[in-house]
Amino acid sequence: MAAVAEYFDVDKSQFWQQIIPSHQPAILRQAVKHWPSVVAAGKS
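The chain above was modelled as a monomer; its predicted structure follows.
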């Protein structure tokens, strides 16, 4: 079984230019770190 590619702190440009065209599964780490619920959870 092939490993799934992991990406960290992906920006919009990288997502559309690199990840989408690959047509492969991807793990996006830190993709939602700015969401209010994630920020609030980090403070508790």
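Residues 28 and 38 are 15 Å apart (CA to CA).
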